[in-house]
Design goal:
Blueprint (H helix, E strand, L loop, with lengths): L7 E9 L5 E2 H5 L18 E2 L8 H16 L1 H5 L3 E6 L10 H7 L6 E4 L7 H14 L5 E8 L23 E9 L5 E8 L9 E2 L15 E2 L3 H26 L8 E4 L4 H11 L10 H4 L6 H11 L8 E8 L4 E8 L5
Parallel strand pairs: 4-5, 4-6, 11-12
Antiparallel strand pairs: 1-7, 2-3, 6-7, 8-13, 9-10, 12-13
Helix pairs in contact: 6-7
């Protein structure tokens, strides 16, 4: 069988949300005057989750993998040939978390690959990479592990929690199981890099310094009205662009997709993406008010929620789409869901 004819499937996802839900009133008590307070980018969700003070990204991935082990057995995880990871905030800055995750999960994979540029679209990028590696003969199964752990660390710093941006992110983790199989085939994947926008997301510290330098100020994302306007325009354009590209190649109109699963930066993006693809709200998974902005964990957590609640049936076409950072990357993937076995 040639690589071109090998079918690769997303067999399952399992997820983890740390701690008890934290209500919007938590941040309301710290809120101060902020020129961005009324911006639609920062309208708070009702709830979100935060990592515990001593909880690592590796801890989160181990807890997320428990569902896969329960449903598919320990060997489905320990025997995977490929581990693809993305961590919003690596536990150590000099290396990614892939090696530690592999060890914690009892894996001895041939490939351990840490992705960083994928951002909020990292799960889609992971699907493309896993699909290509498995189809080319590099193994039979792969895990895609993502951890969003910035909400309870960066955004809950004493001086940062007062800002409008702090109330939106939530923490969570997910692990996807990908394999040579025709059960839930990955139909197509589109990934696009917009390198011209790569420098538009910055860390703001007062007084200014490099992110690694010692100093009194706590860092956050450097938002301005001008940057927000650009990010809104890019996100509104890029997610439909990659979605339409995938739909065109698989021969399906976006309006006929059975389920849309996206990242969830805010309510405005969710509404605009549905409108652009001509989809009703009932066919777009939305956990924003329960989880906030989950960054890269948003797509797998939303998909797991859809499967668990019966919103997606065997044979349904699922479209996953997201953009990252200030618009330097976007991706979409279509899957014919075969059911959770």
């Amino acid at each position: 069988m040639s690589a071109a004819t090998k079918t690769v499937s997303l067999l399952d996802v399992s997820t983890y949300l740390p701690g008890e839900p934290i209500g919007a009133e938590y941040y309301a008590q710290f809120a101060e005057s902020d020129e961005l307070r009324d911006n639609l980018m920062f309208r708070a969700p009702r709830f979100r989750h935060h990592v515990a003070p001593d909880e690592t990204a590796i801890d989160m991935v181990e807890r997320a993998a428990a569902g896969l082990i329960d449903r598919h057995g320990q060997d489905a995880v320990t025997g995977a040939d490929i581990l693809i990871t993305h961590t919003q905030m690596p536990d150590m800055p000099f290396y990614g978390g892939g090696g530690g995750m592999a060890h914690r999960l009892g894996m001895k994979p041939n490939w351990v690959i840490d992705l960083h540029n994928g951002g909020c679209a990292a799960f889609v990028l992971g699907l493309k990479l896993a699909r290509n590696l498995l189809a080319s003969g590099e193994g039979r199964t792969a895990l895609i592990a993502v951890a969003q752990n910035a909400a309870g660390q960066i955004f809950d710093q004493e001086s940062i929690r007062r800002k409008a941006q702090a109330s939106v992110p939530g923490d969570g983790a997910a692990v996807g199981l990908v394999a040579l199989s025709d059960v839930s085939p990955i139909l197509d994947v589109e990934c696009r890099t917009y390198g011209e926008f790569a420098g538009d997301m910055t860390i703001a510290v007062d007084p200014p310094r490099k992110w690694w330098e010692a100093g009194p100020g706590e860092g956050c994302i450097g938002f301005t009205e001008s940057k927000i306007t650009k990010v809104l325009a890019r996100g509104n354009r890029q997610v439909p662009e990659v979605s339409y590209a995938v739909c065109d190649r698989i021969g399906v109109q976006p309006k006929d997709i059975d389920l849309l699963v996206t990242n969830q930066p805010n309510r405005a993006f969710l509404r605009n993406w549905r409108d652009a693809l001509e989809l009703p709200q009932s066919r777009h998974v939305d956990t924003f008010d329960e989880c906030g902005n989950l960054f890269a964990a948003g797509i797998p957590v939303n998909f797991d929620r859809a499967v668990s609640t019966g919103r997606v049936a065997s044979g349904d076409t699922v479209l996953m789409a997201a953009f990252a950072h200030a618009g330097d990357f976007a991706g979409a993937a279509a899957i014919c869901w075969g059911g959770r076995n």
